[in-house]
């Protein structure tokens, strides 16, 4: 295999487009190239690597096992190339930026975003504070923060929505199966969006409840759920490795969706660093493109 083949971004871009779009025709339209050009570039990549990357038929285009492996590296290389080009083209950002983030978003979203942001904007000094959305917004209104990234029930936010998810019940279904017994809950403190939505839904459904665990951190809530002590209302994306209760079978009421939003201070809207950070957050919130099936999966569907 030609080791330099992986660094030909033109070939990798065509390969990634076919893998994402699911066909050579759609990939050509996305790249504003002819279908034959895209086919030739993918073929050149396969020749250089010495292995087929796609299984082609009259009906389907599926990634081979080698194609699946290469796709992960190709996506990383293309992203790094875009980041490098953007950093070289943009003026260097400087100054201070204070950011408030709700605990669950801080755990699952912030590490990768801040790592990439600091790598691109080393002269920006960040001050990150973690807490409840309402508390952080109050701090921002008092001048203590430039920006808050938090949660809100759809339609109630004054901020800019950058993502969202379903709000679900996480926990052991046996804790909620008896309608005559209070539902044991693990909740964030007062003023939490999840807490308010859950208690309002339970009140409308006429279900009794008791708080058996209150924690300001997502890890504390998850620990109570994993231990079988309580059920908890959480955004679906934060229920990894936790059992999720279906409202229609558990006897618990359905919960509303939740928005992830950015709340701007008056001064932050004019800060280039704040705008760049929010753009990075929005990018991180976008759902990943659906992957083509592997060759084995494609054969199993025929």
TrEMBL record:
Molecular function via GO: DNA binding; DNA-binding transcription factor activity
Keywords: DNA-binding, Transcription, Transcription regulation
Signal peptide residue numbers: none
Domain HTH lysR-type: 7-64
The keyword Transcription is assigned to this record: yes
Keyword presence, Transcription regulation: yes
InterPro entries: LTTR (IPR050176), LysR_HTH_N (IPR000847), LysR_subst-bd (IPR005119), WH-like_DNA-bd_sf (IPR036388), WH_DNA-bd_sf (IPR036390)
Pfam assignment, any one: HTH_1
PROSITE patterns for this protein: HTH_LYSR
PANTHER family documented for this protein: HTH-TYPE TRANSCRIPTIONAL REGULATOR LRHA-RELATED, TRANSCRIPTIONAL REGULATOR
Family: Belongs to the LysR transcriptional regulatory family.
Protein name in the entry: LysR family transcriptional regulator
């Amino acid at each position: 295999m030609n080791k330099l083949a992986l660094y030909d971004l033109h070939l990798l871009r065509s390969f990634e487009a076919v893998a994402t779009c699911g066909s050579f025709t759609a990939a050509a339209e996305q790249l504003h190239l002819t279908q034959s050009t895209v086919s030739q570039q993918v073929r050149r990549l396969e020749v250089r690597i010495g292995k087929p990357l796609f299984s082609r038929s009259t009906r389907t285009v599926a990634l081979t096992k080698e194609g699946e492996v290469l796709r992960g590296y190709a996506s990383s290389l293309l992203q790094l190339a875009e980041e490098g080009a953007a950093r070289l083209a943009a003026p260097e950002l400087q100054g201070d930026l204070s950011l408030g983030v709700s605990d669950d978003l801080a755990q699952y979203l912030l590490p990768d975003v801040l790592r990439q942001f600091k790598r691109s904007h080393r002269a920006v000094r960040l001050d990150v504070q973690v807490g409840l959305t309402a508390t952080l917004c109050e701090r921002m209104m008092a001048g203590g923060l430039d920006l808050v990234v938090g949660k809100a029930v759809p339609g109630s936010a004054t901020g800019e929505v950058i993502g969202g998810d379903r709000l679900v019940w996480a926990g052991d279904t046996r804790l909620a199966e008896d309608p005559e017994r209070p539902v044991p809950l693990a909740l964030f403190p007062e003023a939490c969006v999840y807490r308010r939505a859950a208690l309002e839904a339970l009140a409308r459904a006429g279900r009794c409840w008791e708080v058996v665990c209150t924690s300001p951190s997502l890890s504390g809530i998850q620990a109570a759920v994993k231990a079988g002590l309580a059920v908890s209302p959480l955004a679906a994306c934060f229920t990894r490795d936790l059992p999720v209760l279906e409202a229609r079978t558990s006897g618990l009421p359905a919960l509303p969706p939740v928005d992830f939003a950015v709340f701007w201070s008056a001064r932050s809207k004019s800060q280039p660093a704040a705008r760049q950070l929010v753009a990075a957050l929005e990018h991180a919130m976008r759902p990943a493109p659906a992957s083509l099936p592997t060759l084995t999966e494609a054969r199993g569907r025929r």
